[in-house]
User: What shape does this take?
Amino acid sequence: MARATTSSATRSAGMFQLVAGLASALAFTGAAFYTVELATCGDAGQYVRHDNHVELIGGCVDGNDLPHTDPRQPAGSDRIAEHNNYRP
Assistant: This one.
């Protein structure tokens, strides 16, 4: 009956890869939490659904920074989202 053996070098190399993977996952998680903590907004805002559209009330988005469209123009291929794409 043959017995399988593993050398201590193979075992320590596997342990090093495991520890390195866990350390990098921990570092990326810490960086993500730190980034989110820096990007806080005092007013999170809320979405309000009206008859035929959804409106963001409050929040940190400045409406002047958003592109403006003429609501009288018919929806064409240049419009990305229309109200019928909304899924509650």
The helical segments are 8-38. The first helix runs from residue 8 to 38. Residues 51 and 83 are 10 Å apart (CA to CA).
